[in-house]
Amino acid sequence: MNCPGCSSWIPNDADSCLHCGFALPRDGSFGAPLQTALAAAPAEEASALPPFFAVPVWKLALMSFFTFGLYEFYWFYRNWQRIRVREQVNISPFWRAFFGVFFCHSCFERIETYGLARDITPGPPILLLTILWIVTTIAWRLPDPFWLICMFSFVFLLPVQAYANRINAQEMPAHDRNARLTAWNWGGIVIGGCLFALDLIGLFASSN
Length: 208
What we know:
Blueprint: H1 31-40, H2 43-46, H3 57-66, H4 70-87, H5 93-98, H6 100-116, H7 126-137, H8 158-171, H9 183-207
Helix pairs in contact: 3-4, 3-9, 4-6, 6-7, 6-8
């Protein structure tokens, strides 16, 4: 039979999909609940999309830096959306993104597991990346000028995104790479750049 989460072939007696982790009823029937969930999913999620959020690593770095990490929240939110639809799990993408320090490893692990099941190797060092991302993310609590470390937490998302891009390219070669900067992106860059410049001016002014 085919997995209702990712459409991959799986044995009839499997308890879960070996490819995406979708939990299967022991009686082999999926019935109305699955159909209801699929019908209720937003149109964007129900349409043909790559397995994970598509964004070039340069754009992820650029937007994360100039939005003071807000784009990282968006990155987690979009990936949890894809995971929720594909695995048909009852999770809140917003809260999983909001509490990213608690759920980042789970997100990284799902991306790696999905890729390794499709022989996309090597996978990223998710445990190391998780620790470094959490440490740099909470560095905003440090005194001047050490809080600036948190501005570079995105660096530890880049290997995960590069791996997700490899998965997307293999599973859906014609997908939209999201490689253009939209008006919203430019707005975030300009506003964030101005705020960052003011922070630096204030930092150097106070030191003198």
